[in-house]
Specification:
Layout (H helix, E strand, L loop, with lengths): L2 H19 L4 E7 L5 E6 L3 E6 L2 E5 L2 E6 L10 E4 L26 H12 L14 H9 L27
Antiparallel strand pairs: 1-2, 2-5, 3-4, 5-6
């Protein structure tokens, strides 16, 4: 088994535990590959689907597709919402801006948690300096008192049983 496959296997195990511990606030809807390299994850938390005038229209069910490409974990995953969302760090085509910096140390579970925080407008992950959606950025800047829109937490409780270190690459 190669390094990528071992990492995918470890990510799947850790994510399965995160989902199990989530109290049904996270669901793995589907996977592709063995070990999985593509996921559809459902988040059950409050987020903003769109705005009506200046008021947010909330939704409590969000689906995200995550693709771990052939160069993962060296290259960052691709993540896209499959349900509508209004957020400064999500493009009009629903691709999630994960930033220009990616570290191989970030696990899939940590990415899943980060996307959950994006949904909830958690200020520790929201980037208004380089927005993907200018309209959502303007709205967010003027409505910070409303954040986060949900306080549901998604927490990784365990680290994977085997860790890949730089020397393995």
């Amino acid at each position: 088994m190669g390094i990528r496959e071992k990492r995918l296997e470890n990510d799947f195990k850790e994510l399965s535990q995160l989902v199990s511990d989530s109290g049904s606030t996270l669901v793995i809807v589907s996977t592709q590959g063995q070990p999985p390299h593509q996921y559809v994850i459902e988040y059950r938390c409050r987020g903003i689907e769109r705005k009506q005038g200046n008021e947010p229209v909330f939704r409590t069910n969000h689906r995200v597709e995550i693709n771990l490409g052939s160069n993962y974990p060296k290259d960052k995953p691709a993540a896209k919402f499959l349900t509508p969302i209004f957020h400064p760090n999500v493009y009009d085509n629903l691709n999630i801006c994960l930033g220009s910096y990616w570290t191989m140390a970030e696990t899939l579970s940590e990415l899943i948690i980060r996307i959950g925080k994006i949904i909830q407008y958690s200020e520790d992950v929201m980037n208004l300096k380089s927005p993907a959606n200018g309209e959502a950025k303007s709205w967010a800047e003027n409505n910070r008192r409303r954040f986060p829109v949900d306080t549901q937490t998604f927490k990784a409780t365990k680290k994977p049983s085997s860790v890949i270190v730089w020397n393995d690459l």
